[in-house]
Specification:
globular, 23% helix, alpha/beta, 262 residues, 13 strands
Length: 262
């Protein structure tokens, strides 16, 4: 199976980059499944049902989120009603939405997508390892799912790497998101799991993580919160990672970073 995972979409530049590039890549690279992290897609904070529908209409199969998942209140009922969108698994029991989903190709191949949030420099959530272990109790590579993709939405690189090694050989891929900065450490771990510390963002890189520079600079100089962050209005770069899995084992065969500049 060939799976494309797109990094954090930030504002209009990020949305436009996804809408422009996903259909082309899907055809040219013979991609079976496309998943997008869209937690900053709606004006930089959260996402809306309209954004989700725009992505689904151009060939996106599933959407992940992160710590900004609840920023736009109108997304709340959508998180429960549409099974193609998830929030981190390790939110407390009873939180609206779901933390994993199973997507199916036209040929009947099943991809399990799960997301956890890190806890270093992040919110105090439940254990991400234990949360994923519960999901994997009923989902096994090459047995009842063909591939398993896990997004760890986290700040600390060490936490992401440790998490990946913990599940090496049990999932097809572990990809990091949240920092909006693409890393160059793509690899296949010893037992066959593809890994990348951060996919990067789909957004305007002539900015501060997809936002206009003025407010972050003011915060840097004054050391206190000032105006609300404003998404950059420049052209968006498309960042993603492509992983190919073995149909027999579900483990990774190849991993490739993709960056398409405007």
């Amino acid at each position: 199976m060939r799976i494309l995972y797109c990094g954090d979409v930030v504002g209009r530049p990020g949305r436009e980059a996804v809408i422009k590039n996903v259909p082309i890549l899907r055809e040219e690279r013979k991609i079976d499944m496309v998943v997008v992290n869209a937690e900053n897609a709606a004006h930089g904070f959260g996402l809306t049902p309209a954004v989700c529908k725009d992505f689904f209409s151009i060939g996106v199969d599933g959407i992940t989120t992160g710590n900004h998942v609840f920023d736009q209140r109108e997304i709340m009922p959508f998180l429960d009603s549409d099974k193609r969108i998830i929030r981190p698994l390790n939110y407390p029991s009873g939180t609206i939405g779901r933390g994993s989903m199973i997507l199916e190709t036209k040929e009947g191949k099943k991809l399990l997508v799960a997301q956890v949030m890190g806890r270093v420099f992040m919110e105090a959530l439940d254990c991400p390892v234990q949360a994923l272990e519960k999901v994997l109790d009923s989902a096994t590579l090459s047995l009842n799912v063909n591939a398993i993709l896990v997004d760890i939405h986290a700040e600390a690189t060490s936490e992401k790497i440790s998490f990946a090694h913990c599940f090496d050989g049990k999932v097809s891929a572990v990809f990091g998101t949240h920092t909006h900065v693409p890393t160059a450490d793509e690899c296949i771990l010893k037992k066959g799991t593809a890994y990348l510390s951060d996919v990067g963002m789909c957004g305007d890189y002539d900015s501060v993580l997809g936002f206009e520079e003025e407010t972050p600079i003011a915060r840097l100089k004054r050391q206190y919160p000032s105006e609300r962050l404003v998404p950059s209005k420049g052209k968006g770069t498309f960042c993603a990672v492509l992983v190919e899995t073995d149909d027999k084992t579900g483990l990774a065969l190849n991993i490739e970073r993709i960056m398409i500049k405007p």
